[in-house]
Amino acid sequence: MAEDKKMNASNEQAERETITTRQGHPVTDNQNIKTLGNRGPAMMENYHFIEKMSHFDREEVPERVVHARGTGALGYFETYGKVGNEPPEKYTRAKVFQGKGKKTPVLVRFSTVAGSKDVPETDRDPRGFAVKFYTEDGNWDLVGNNLKIFFIRDAMKFPDMIHAFKADPASNVPDPRRMFDFVSRSPEATHMITFLFSPWGRPATYRHMQGSGVNTYKWINDKGEAFLVKYHWEPKQGIRNLTTKEAQEIQAKNHSHATQDLYEAIERGDYPEWELYVQLMEDGDHPELDFDPLDDTKLWPEDKFPWLPVGKMVLNENPTDFHTQIEQAAFGTGVLVDGMDFSDDKMLQGRTFSYSDTQRYRIGANYLQLPTNAPKAKVRTNQARGMMSMRTPEEAGGNPHINYEPSMVGGLREASKEDRPQYRPHYDAADVMSQPIDRTNNYGQAGETYRAFEEWEREELISNLSDVLAICDPRIQEAMVQHFTKADEDYGRRVKEGIDAKMKELEAQGADERLPGQEAGVKSKYGEGGTTAQNEAVDEAVQKGHEADPY
Fold first, then answer.
1. pLDDT band at 517 (very low <50, low <70, confident <90, very high)
2. Which residues are catalytic?
3. Contact at 8 Å (CB) between 216 and 345?
4. Where is the composition biased (Polar residues) (predicted)?
């Protein structure tokens, strides 16, 4: 019996492939460095060790400034060949929506937004929902979040917003007062705060959350006509959200529950699915509405602009190498195909530069040559060279000597415009200025959302806001209560009462005043979960620690 086990083990070893260096050289000893005698010192000609260690030193790319923590999967998008009951050609010539049953490969990355790569997946935070479609006309990236609106409507404010949401730059401790200091001066954030501090700010898993393009795009048809469009992903598994208490209980057991849930669901064949819907609107500024349709702090009312199903997405394949396929995946809001275009949405315009520029910094100038980012359509371009270029001779076209255009003697040429009617938006003469939009209506939809919540959702919202605002500067408290009151009188009153009650509770506990950045009372950058919890944890670590003698 023992001999049989030895033989089987020997056969298994023989069947395994031999490990090599990155140059393809077989490695005969992967356990010991070369030394003078078996105790050392080490020799300079430790080539295999030096190569192995130097690569290890460089094997992580810089984490994303936003959306750092995430996971992903692969699958396909299947078009219904209709937009509601209409042919897609009525609205767009994008081929990805043409032909019932046509499948397009996709790569999806889900993420948190403001936290770093090591944040818990229970954090109160919007969730990124980015989809890369490898279409026949090249890649299309639909980059959005689970929540359908955003905090701000102008890209100028984005860096400041993220700075405010991240840890204190001096102490490196999360401080929710920073976030509310910013949003108290940004009334357009009231709607998003209402969603975020409700249970909708904590999706139970990536499989059970909605997705949205958030920004307004345009569809272009064969006549060169444009339609404003919003994208919505609806999970066929249903929507599930968590309360603060439930999230804390999960976090205590599993730091990466959502990543594990997605991977194991696909592994067992329980493939998650989402249906893609669009809302459409005639191109224009629509003065009949009490908001600007390009304002990403607003929802388009479904009774006026119904959700129209266009297809479904199925995720049926896990990554085989997370770093190569998911961590190096790069998305950009400017990655559109024929039949799609940008709207004048100020956030979209700003994101379109920022996203791709981030990838050039994070992964390198040739990030689009990596398999996870490379289109499955043919690439023929004069944009070449740079570090880590993997360009093939075919990409240069028929004449590798001509890397410019136009040319009389060869090289690449422009595509014909004849079969693609051009969309030419018209702008009336206007002054160049730095000004907010006219129809801000910062509070109307925030109040509607508050009133649409179920009572348990409103109670959770009030509790979460009260807990964090109780430790804020009185000026911030007053400003936030005013914002909520303008959205809904009951909303503002209940937050004010909640703040007062929480402050009395803290006073009774003898809560002391601490320096900024050291009194963030919760485990999340947003400050929910009990305003003294984080400070208590610091004290308990000392008080409950067991003394030990040195050894």
1. very low
2. 67, 145
3. yes
4. 20-35
